[in-house]
Design brief:
InterPro entries: FAR1_DNA_bnd_dom. The protein has about 270 residues and is of the alpha+beta class. It contains 8 helices and 10 strands. It folds into 2 domains: about 1-145, no CATH class; about 195-265, no CATH class. Helix 4 packs across helix 5.
């Protein structure tokens, strides 16, 4: 065990608790005895710990053994390190430079796997910071403490289906939570999350529309034949159809007539031929 420094006090916080003890009151003995069955438990612990003190975290180092098992993992303060000088001193800028967020902060948290205990133990905890810690009202807006839950996403998607704007849906969630600092994320986070799920929604919607269209087509064309298959995630993988005209063309020419040469550039990555 090395580099466990005295924890600074931040009187602006009403900190959360760990096993009934305030994070601010955890002793060195409490920390040295801490064990985690999996790495994610250590991640959650340090994230809550950092929220209590007023700083954000990010992943840093990761080591594995020859069997690809994690042997150690480290996290650092969001303000660890420094920004590259070439970006700070760049000439002929077309837009304003981003705000300097790195302040060479030494705060770090390291866990390693102990074979004797069969768990991850605290190897190093440095809680000295080179910057002012955030206040209680500022913590919810730190990147590592913002998260759009599945429940909130479900509400927004449902509201979008009835033509409610994203900004209005966000306002509803803020009001429901009791304020911006309680909702847990910013409107930009919400837009980013929606952008990530939209392609899946589009694909699912297109697939269902295509299958429904073929079913309706079959009512007016007795020669229509169609089959489709699903992938391991239950999504449409392949789709084949043949109508009466296509059958006649094949009987006459006996070969594929056309390929879509642009298939590699679309979002489905599928070959289209008729």
């Amino acid at each position: 065990m090395q580099e466990i420094n005295p924890l600074p006090k931040n009187d602006g916080f009403t900190s959360s608790h760990h096993n009934g003890i305030s994070y601010r009151n955890l002793s060195m003995e409490d920390l040295t005895k801490k064990e985690f069955k999996i790495v994610d438990e250590a991640k959650i612990f340090y994230n809550e710990y950092s929220a209590a003190y007023g700083f954000g975290t990010r992943r840093h180092g990761l080591h594995r053994d020859r069997k690809d098992n994690i042997t150690s993992r480290s996290w650092v303060c969001l303000k660890q390190g420094t920004q590259a000088a070439k970006w700070l001193n760049k000439e002929n800028r077309k837009r304003l430079p981003k705000k300097v967020t790195r302040q060479n902060c030494p705060a770090t948290f390291v866990v390693r796997f102990c074979k004797e205990k069969g768990a991850f133990v605290v190897r190093r905890l440095n809680n000295n910071h080179s910057h002012i810690l955030a206040t209680q009202d500022e913590v919810p807006f730190i990147r590592s403490h913002r998260h759009v839950s599945d429940a909130d996403m479900a509400v927004v998607i449902s509201m979008r289906k009835v033509a409610v704007k994203i900004s209005r849906a966000y306002d509803y969630l803020v009001d429901k939570a009791g304020g911006h600092k309680h909702v847990g994320f910013t409107i930009k986070d919400l837009y980013n999350k929606l952008d990530a799920v939209r392609p899946m929604e589009i694909c699912d919607g297109d697939a269902q529309s295509a299958i429904s269209y073929l079913a309706k087509w079959a009512l007016t064309d007795e020669g229509l034949f169609s089959r489709y298959s699903l992938d391991e995630d239950g999504r449409l993988a392949n789709l084949f159809w043949r109508d009466s005209e296509s059958l006649k063309d094949y009987e006459w020419f006996g070969d594929v007539l056309n390929f879509d040469s642009t298939y590699k550039t679309n979002i489905y990555g599928k070959l289209m031929w008729t």
